[in-house]
Amino acid sequence: MKIVHVVGARPNFMKVAPTLDALAEHDAVEQLLIHTGQHYDHELSAAHVADLDMPEPDYYLEVGSGTHAVQTAGILTAIEPVLEREEPDAVLVAGDTNTALAAALAAAKLRLPVVHLEAGLRSRDRTMPEEHNRVITDHIADLLLTTSADADRNLVSEGIAADRIVLVGNTMIDSLRKYEERARELDLARREFGVEDHVLVTLHRPSLVDDEAAFGEVIETLEDLARTRSILFPVHPRTQRMLEGARLRPRALRLIPPQSYVRFLSLLVRAAAVVTDSGGLQEETTALGIPCFTLRANTERPVTISEGTNHLLGIGPGALERLRALLDVPRDPSPRIPPLWDGAAAQRAADAILRRYRRPEGATARFLVHGA
Fold it and tell me: What's the longest Cα–Cα distance across the chain?
């Protein structure tokens, strides 16, 4: 059987890499990797491929940035001829990026089965582009691999047949566990940045950083906190542009460049707390037992609150006051971790893929449908 994996944005790499490894244990599986180029900054892309010991992509589509429409259309038109040429048994996409949506659409138009890794997450907020991507990709997918039981319930409530859904756990946590020891030994916060017991900050979502007033209040609060706490803030390229555009120049708050996967993980595993608007960090902090304070109005990962360390603060002055109050709350010595976030999710994902798509002996590739 032949599986095509499609990646393009930073979160995709940590989810797909363990699945590539798990399927590589089976000699009868041929795998190809397509990189759309949605993220092209070195530390958000090529460095992750190297850190995660992923093979070099078989295809690099170099789509680059643009509006959601431009980027999605670019991926659609670039990936279709690749899928026609390769005729895979299934196309695996991960998460909620434009890459996932576009690759799933292209595959579906060719009647190629789609595997959605990290299916079923829902924020119920249709103002989020990621929510559109999640919902559409799930309803296109033939096999939906979920991280938690609440994701299964979301899918069933939307009319997706239960026999298409397999709860496998969280492959992002597989990557975390694989590289956790290396990251701890690196001890980047102390050795390179000279801090300990630090707060790690990441902010990149348009709903926050594109709102100059709200973003300015957050930076001002973090700057104030940084006078008494060590705060490291790896700045996403989008966030850097907004800082420059708003002429925000924090001095106590330590701004650092984007980090490769293992370097960022080193900052994370040694952190006393995390402040973020990221989805994946809500999961990683839950697995590590690190308090996470999420500056968003909602989350598609409620399990990180009910069975993890995540605190959903909202956005605005009230959120910032809650942040001030909660940063010094003692850590829970025995936080709960969701079931199947055990470092073996990729093996369960591989088993589910093999059960569904292994070709009978002597069978040829699947039939592709070309446009009229």
Answer: 68
Identify residue 82 by its one-letter amino acid code.
V
The dihedral through the CA atoms of 300, 292, 282, 69 has a sign that is positive
Give the chain's domains with CATH numbers. 2-170+341-357 (3.40.50.2000), 181-326 (3.40.50.2000)
Tens of each residue's pLDDT in the chain, 372 residues: 999 999 998 889 999 999 999 999 999 999 999 999 986 664 555 676 788 899 999 999 988 888 999 999 999 999 999 999 999 999 999 999 999 999 999 999 999 999 999 999 999 999 999 999 999 999 999 999 999 999 999 999 999 999 999 999 999 999 999 999 999 999 999 999 999 999 999 999 888 888 889 999 999 999 999 999 999 999 988 898 888 887 888 889 999 999 999 999 999 999 999 999 999 999 999 999 999 999 999 999 999 999 999 999 999 889 999 999 999 888 877 889 999 999 999 999 999 999 999 877 666 655 566 665
Q: What angle do CA 134, 140, 141 make, to 5 degrees?
A: 85
pTM here is 0.93
Q: Per residue, what are the HEC states of 249-270?
A: CCCCCEEECCCCHHHHHHHHHC
Beta-strand relationship, 90-94 and 114-119:
parallel
- Report the C-alpha gap between 69 and 238 in whole angstroms: 18
E strands, 112-164, are 114-119, 143-146
Could you give the residue numbers annotated as active site?
204
Question: Which structure tokens are listed for 144?
Answer: 């939906």
Assign 4 to helix, strand or coil: strand
Does residue 251 contact residue 271 with C-beta atoms inside 8 Å? no
